[in-house]
């Protein structure tokens, strides 16, 4: 996502934490007491590294700027239209590849973004008036069969610009299989999209959405979270918060017919896959288990 600085991005659209962050957010029985920057989104506790200490609060409750309570809840099928409106207003226009390609209105992009809702592991921040003010969209990745051939999503896309985005994803999938790193794991959580209404940014909503996602991982025994970052800022924040890179593709190296396909503005120079483990899974020195 093309955010002007990392602090703004973290408050608005990135949601991960670790025990080394010197954070001043206060959570008391699920109540968030506001924040005004990067250093206040996460508590200085063993937030991710000690998953067993995550509180079992459902739904989580906090306060909006107008003192109207909002909750963090599971996204259901009935939320589809509201989630799409959120993405169209606050996410699609800022993602760096979308911006470079000037994709605009694209039904294929909308359908691609929403298809993860069927996995029932995405969350929303919703006010008492039923307004969705933040979302964290996730999917479940299942280990493919040994002889499986990855489907090429770009082949069936009729939108010429979004077809280029799918082509990049197809290329990455063909050249990297995250499950090769985790031979004892059959399901991985795939963090897709985090976005918060600009009128409610700086309130810790993204942090609460992530907290609920991590609770989901713990309760469903999912030990790894996977994120494909097309934005430099999102990757930097994830690394700061304990994620580590397992795959990188510089945009200048991704070519079709000997031509570079994607050249988003600097500092967005690479698509990177970052992961966070919440269990002791051993990986050897060459990245293979």
TrEMBL record:
It catalyses: serotonin + acetyl-CoA = N-acetylserotonin + CoA + H(+); serotonin + hexadecanoyl-CoA = N-hexadecanoyl-serotonin + CoA + H(+); serotonin + octadecanoyl-CoA = N-octadecanoyl-serotonin + CoA + H(+); dopamine + (9Z)-octadecenoyl-CoA = N-(9Z-octadecanoyl)-dopamine + CoA + H(+). Keywords: Acyltransferase, Transferase. Its EC number is 2.3.1.87. Gene3D superfamilies: 3.40.630.30. Belongs to the acetyltransferase family. AANAT subfamily. PANTHER family: AT07410P-RELATED (PTHR20905:SF1), N-ACETYLTRANSFERASE-RELATED (PTHR20905). This is aralkylamine N-acetyltransferase. It comes from Glossina palpalis gambiensis. The lineage of its organism: Eukaryota, Metazoa, Ecdysozoa, Arthropoda, Hexapoda.
């Amino acid at each position: 996502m093309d955010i002007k600085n990392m602090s703004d991005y973290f408050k608005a659209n990135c949601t991960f934490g670790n025990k080394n962050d010197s954070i001043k957010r206060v959570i008391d029985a699920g109540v968030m007491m506001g924040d005004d920057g990067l250093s206040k989104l996460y508590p200085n506790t063993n937030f991710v590294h000690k998953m067993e200490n995550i509180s079992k609060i459902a739904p989580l409750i906090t306060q909006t700027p107008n003192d109207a309570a909002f909750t963090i809840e599971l996204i259901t099928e009935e939320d589809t239209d509201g989630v799409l409106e959120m993405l169209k207003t606050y996410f699609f226009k800022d993602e760096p590849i979308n911006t470079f390609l000037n994709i605009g209105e694209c039904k294929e992009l909308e359908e691609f973004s929403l298809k993860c809702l069927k996995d029932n592991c995405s969350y929303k921040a919703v006010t008492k008036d039923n307004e969705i003010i933040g979302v964290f969209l996730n999917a479940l990745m299942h280990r493919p069969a040994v002889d499986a051939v990855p489907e090429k999503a770009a082949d069936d896309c009729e939108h010429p610009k979004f077809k280029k985005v799918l082509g990049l994803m197809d290329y990455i999938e063909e050249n990297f299989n995250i499950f090769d790193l985790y031979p004892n794991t059959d399901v991985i959580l795939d963090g897709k999209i985090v976005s918060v209404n600009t009128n409610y940014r700086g309130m810790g909503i993204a942090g609460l959405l992530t907290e609920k996602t991590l609770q989901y991982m713990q309760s469903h025994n999912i030990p790894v979270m996977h994120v494909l970052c097309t934005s430099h800022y999102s990757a930097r924040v994830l690394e700061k918060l304990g994620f580590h890179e397992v795959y990188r593709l510089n945009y200048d190296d991704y070519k079709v017919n000997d031509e570079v396909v994607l050249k988003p503005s600097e500092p967005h120079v690479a698509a990177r896959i970052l992961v966070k483990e919440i269990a002791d899974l051993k990986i050897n020195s060459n990245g293979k288990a």
